[in-house]
Design goal:
The complex is a heterodimer. Chain A is an alpha/beta fold. Helices cover 36% and strands 17% of the residues of chain A. By secondary structure, chain B is an alpha/beta fold. Chain B has a single domain (3-156), classed as UDP N-Acetylglucosamine Acyltransferase, domain 1, CATH 2.160.10. Chain B contains three helices and 15 strands. In chain B, a hairpin with a 4-residue loop joins β14 and β15. In chain B, α2 (14-30) runs antiparallel to α3. Chain B is globular. The chains are: A alpha/beta, B alpha/beta.
Chain lengths: 205, 172
């Protein structure tokens, strides 16, 4: 849990302070970034879930549960987000500071950026949520649902509704979502927090 | 469900709290003709204003009193829900980031019973939507929709004219 949180913190610092700042500014990010705090609480909740399944109710799991229950409502009101406790999130993931995320995938790979107002959940037919691969860039206002898998390096342009499997390095856009490009390197997109990307601006990259 | 379980369910469900506050506001609004209860109403409106502000700012759920919502309304999740100037029938369900109706319009959407309105969908303008309609996540409804249809896409198209949404609606 701690090594993953350190990776998250490094990613948040790199995104929020691209030109580098002092140690104090970086430490203050823990108080100023709702997304980072949300990730920390999700990781603690996930840790608690694993511990409770392994050891049952011990004083330690009970204390952690009380602590997490106290943070739940303030975090919900600050970030307006709900990240499922059971989700396996790899280290170095960015969840938007602007919030409005209702996400509950099976897993999120490292290096993934998820922007604001994104919903990830089960479809109407099944009970299996999506799996998000590594280095995925998910733009604002996206909806991802169903028993699907987003491969490595997938880019979801803003406003996409995706309910199909997406191969590695593909770009999905539109509602309903279609694959508009098969090989796109989204490394440059994942370097900063630029969000207004559309198909025209993507063609020039 | 035990009484303690019900309290826990209300505490954990922002949508249910928002619906309670909305119903309280509608109750106050319906009693404004009887002069005898005006002192009570004054207190009630203060309580309502505070509760509605918490629900709107804290949870991001805005159920305006200008909306006429039938019994059995379900708000799944929270954040960005706006239900304004519209009419919804019984046993409707809306998801997060759903916008139904907008400020300042007189003839808003009219939605029948048992509508399932998915997350991130938008229903603006004077459209009439029938009973047991399913609006897929992310859809934008621009035209009238007959009963039992499934609407998807932006702009919304009718994908199926006979879709049974009893499975995805919350149980009655």
């Amino acid at each position: 849990m701690w090594s993953e949180l350190r990776a998250d913190f490094r990613l948040y610092c790199a995104l929020r302070f691209p030109h580098g700042v002092g140690v104090l500014q970086r430490a203050l990010l823990w108080f100023r970034s709702p997304g980072l705090l949300m990730l920390a609480i999700q990781r603690a909740s996930h840790h608690w879930l694993n511990r409770r399944e392994r050891d049952g109710w011990t004083p330690e799991t009970l204390a952690l549960k009380l602590l997490l229950a106290l943070t739940r409502l303030p975090m919900l009101m600050i970030s307006k987000s709900d990240v499922a406790m059971g989700t396996v999130i790899a280290g170095g993931v960015y969840l938007s500071d602007r919030g409005h995320l209702i996400i509950g995938p099976q897993g999120i790979g490292s290096g993934t950026l998820i922007h604001e107002r994104v919903t990830i959940g089960v479809g109407a037919a099944g009970q299996v949520p999506p799996t998000i691969g590594e280095n995925v860039w998910i733009g604002p206002d996206c909806v991802i649902y169903g028993d699907i898998r987003l491969g490595k390096g997938v880019t979801l342009l803003p406003g996409t509704v995706c309910s199909m499997n997406v191969p590695d390095n593909a770009v999905v856009a539109g509602n309903p979502g279609i694959i508009v490009r098969r090989d796109f390197d989204n490394t440059a997109l994942r370097r900063n927090l630029e969000r207004d990307v559309d198909r025209e601006s993507l063609a020039s990259r | 469900m035990s009484a303690w379980g019900k309290v826990g369910a209300i505490r954990r469900t922002p949508g249910l709290q928002a619906v309670f506050v909305y119903r309280f506001g509608r109750l106050l609004d319906s009693r404004k003709k009887s002069i005898a209860v005006w002192p009570l109403l004054a207190v009630g409106w203060i309580v309502y204003a505070l509760a509605a502000a918490v629900v709107r700012k804290g949870y991001g759920i805005r159920l305006s009193l200008s909306a006429d919502i039938g019994p059995g309304f379900y708000v799944g999740h929270f954040g960005g829900v706006e239900v304004i100037n519209c009419r919804l029938g019984q046993h409707c369900s809306v998801g997060q980031q759903t916008k139904v109706g907008r400020d300042g319009q007189i003839d808003g959407p009219r939605i029948g019973n048992g509508a399932w309105i998915g997350a991130h969908s938008k229903v603006f303008g004077p459209v009439t939507i029938g009973d047991n309609v399913t609006i897929a996540p992310g859809a934008r409804v621009t035209k009238d929709v007959p009963s039992r249809s499934l609407v998807a896409g932006d702009p919304g198209r009718i994908v199926s004219r006979n879709y049974d949404n009893a499975r995805i609606l919350p149980p009655i």
